[in-house]
Amino acid sequence: GRDLDYTSSSVDHSIDEAEKTLSVAEARLKQAEANRENAEGDFKRYANLLEKEVISKQKYESIKLSYELSREELNVAMREVERAKVFVMKSKDSKKLVRAKESELLALTKSLNQLKEILQQVDINIGYTKVSAPSDGIILKKVSEPGEVVTPGGVIGVMINPEDIHIRTYVPEKYIGKISLNMQADVFNDAYPDKPFS
Fold first, then answer.
1. CA distance linking residue 169 with residue 159, whole number of Å
2. Among 22, 43, 133, 173, which residue is least crowded by beta carbons within 10 Å?
3. Pair 76, 25: CB distance under 8 Å
4. β-strand 138-142 against 157-160: which pairing, if any?
5. What ranges in the chain are assigned the alpha helix state H?
6. What residues form DSSP beta bridges with 139?
7. Who's near 158: CB < 8 A, 6+ residues apart?
8. What is the C-alpha to C-alpha distance for residues 195 and 181, in angstroms, rounded to an integer?
């Protein structure tokens, strides 16, 4: 009796884990569907722009690749949902067949290992979406937008370090003899003719 109760409790746990696995797989499927839909929209829009010769072939190929990858990710997510549904069904069947406990726990272990691998891949993929600046500074210009696919080594923005700013100016030749090192001067520029820089 006690062994049967323990086995029944273990099977209940298996059902709970299987349903959680299915929930995770369904959430990934929804995300994959949304990603594929967005990628398809971008692909159609860029295909139209390519026909009008508004964008380069390279930009179009990049968008096309993103679209194809999103379709493959959707297929993988669909297969994961199907596997998770089978896992739920098997777990529930094992409730009726308590003696199948060992094989069901083995399936649970395999499923959890798959989830760990998926979570590791998700962490890696999230890492790819983060860009760190090499130093502190100020962003002067944003070249790429969030969500845009950037080619390896592509420019996403222009940043300056205020500590490294310097000014190059010119002095008429007749005044060069009157200048000494570390001498203070007022420098005028065309943008602000009434506001000299000291």
1. 23
2. 173
3. no
4. antiparallel
5. 2-51, 57-96, 101-128
6. 159
7. 139, 140, 141, 143
8. 23
The answer to whether residues 179 and 169 touch, using CB atoms and an 8 Å cutoff, is no
Distances (CA, A) of 172 to 68, 124, 125, 175, 190: 62, 58, 57, 6, 16
Q: What is the pLDDT along the chain (198 residues), one digit of tens a residue?
A: 666 676 777 788 888 888 888 899 999 999 999 999 998 998 888 888 888 888 888 888 898 899 899 999 999 999 999 998 998 888 878 776 765 555 655 676 788 888 889 888 888 877 777 778 778 888 888 888 888 888 888 888 888 887 877 777 778 888 888 888 888 888 888 888 888 877
